[in-house]
């Protein structure tokens, strides 16, 4: 059974330091971890739209391939970050050169990722496969190109002097056009559709910086935090031998869990907790705005099933994304805690989703944000206090199977 260690979490988090479009003038810093979050949110939408007619086993397998393929490509990207895309694509055209590069990348990643056992083996297979035309890879490519093009549209007005911009723009247009065969892609690329607005709203979460009252390095965004929580949730799902549906749901729930903060901003926990009525007011406002700006437009364009799926990830029917649930025949049922879910509901047919474990991942991501800044020399009494408070909460967790105390001891 995989054991989660410090070096894996830090490797995952390192994308918060990697700048994108580093040779272009940028209105804001564009970070790899934010782009990956945007990409995987779009990949989830495309998975849902392209798998509705599949048998459930194929549908779940496709989701797993998309989730793991996205993580495999992300870890690969962390190593080759200094290679510009045109150079990388040129290397990729030469099988011998690409194989040598891949061997180097995997050797660098092995100490951090081999602890995940079968996941590591699947990663090695993914990067050695010659067939690049599978549905999972097409969806990931489409999501990758859309998220990268979204960033390109941000920087383009500031780089009119740059003679590369026209070629880059034309390349994006051609490659995206080639992927319109995917269900949902045409709507995503058409301005003012419900899907294009959802894709745009997801991208905007990179502008919301967490811990706004506390200077930090790196200054992580809500969007990047969502990706970290999603990946942690997936890794812990593997460590507790979660069924495929549960592991997939946990990743997607982590990925969507802060989507409502686009509508309310990221309000720090002490403020939320200091006013008893504030959490209720926020949840009511979030529900209204989600319905008005996201759910109703999607329903009006025939995507009611997508709304149901996102609502399930957000825990709307049960009042919290951090509540264990199952879903059978469209009926959502609360489950009383992690142990009950683990012992009695860990089956694909029940469409299970964790609650407490996802909360642990949310706290662990916040702990890593605080710890990384303090380690980088940017600290404050508020940050020190937050790190201690989050650590204490994690140590109080009843989920002994996650071995959190041993994990946190590595950060001493």
From TrEMBL:
**Keyword Disulfide bond included in the entry's annotation:** no
UniProt keyword terms in alphabetical order? Hydrolase
- Write out the GO MF terms: hydrolase activity
Taken from the record, one Pfam family name reads HD_3
**What positions does the domain HD occupy?**
202-389
Fetch the InterPro entries from UniProt: HD_domain (IPR006674)
Q: What is this protein called?
A: HD superfamily hydrolase
Organism of provenance: Candidatus Desulfovibrio kirbyi
């Amino acid at each position: 059974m995989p054991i989660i260690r410090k070096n894996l979490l830090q490797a995952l988090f390192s994308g918060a330091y990697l700048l994108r479009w580093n040779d272009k003038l940028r209105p804001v810093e564009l970070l790899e971890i934010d782009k990956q979050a945007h990409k995987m949110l779009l990949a989830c939408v495309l998975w849902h739209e392209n798998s509705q007619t599949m048998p459930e086993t194929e549908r779940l397998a496709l989701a797993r391939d998309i989730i793991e393929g996205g993580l495999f490509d992300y870890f690969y990207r962390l190593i080759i970050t200094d290679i510009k895309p045109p150079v990388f694509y040129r290397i990729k055209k030469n099988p011998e050169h690409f194989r040598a590069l891949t061997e180097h990348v995997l050797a660098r990643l092995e100490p951090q990722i081999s602890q995940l056992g079968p996941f590591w083996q699947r990663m090695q297979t993914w990067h050695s496969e010659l067939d690049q035309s599978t549905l999972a890879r097409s969806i990931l490519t489409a999501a990758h190109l859309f998220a990268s093009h979204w960033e390109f549209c941000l920087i383009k007005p500031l780089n009119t002097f740059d003679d590369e911009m026209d070629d880059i723009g034309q390349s994006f247009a051609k490659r995206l056009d080639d992927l319109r065969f995917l269900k949902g892609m045409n709507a995503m690329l058409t301005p003012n559709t419900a899907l294009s607005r959802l894709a745009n709203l997801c991208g905007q979460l990179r502008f919301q910086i967490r811990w706004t009252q506390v200077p930090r390095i790196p200054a992580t965004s809500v969007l990047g935090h969502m990706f970290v929580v999603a990946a942690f949730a997936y890794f812990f799902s593997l460590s507790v031998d979660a069924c495929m549906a549960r592991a997939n749901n946990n990743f997607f729930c982590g990925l969507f869990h802060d989507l409502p903060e686009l509508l309310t901003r990221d309000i720090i926990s002490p403020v939320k907790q200091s006013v008893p009525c504030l959490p209720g007011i926020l949840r009511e406002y979030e529900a209204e705005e989600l319905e008005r700006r996201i759910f109703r437009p999607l329903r009006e364009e025939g995507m009611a099933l997508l709304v149901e799926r996102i609502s399930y990830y957000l825990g709307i029917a049960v009042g919290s994304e951090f509540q264990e649930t199952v879903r059978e025949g469209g009926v959502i049922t609360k489950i009383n805690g992690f142990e009950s879910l683990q012992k009695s509901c860990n089956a694909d047919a029940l469409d299970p989703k964790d609650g407490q474990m996802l909360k642990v991942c949310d706290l662990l991501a916040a702990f890593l944000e605080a710890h990384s800044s303090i380690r980088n020399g940017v600290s404050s009494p508020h940050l020190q206090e937050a790190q201690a408070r989050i650590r204490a909460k994690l140590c109080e967790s009843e989920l002994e199977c996650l071995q959190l105390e041993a994990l946190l001891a590595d950060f001493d």
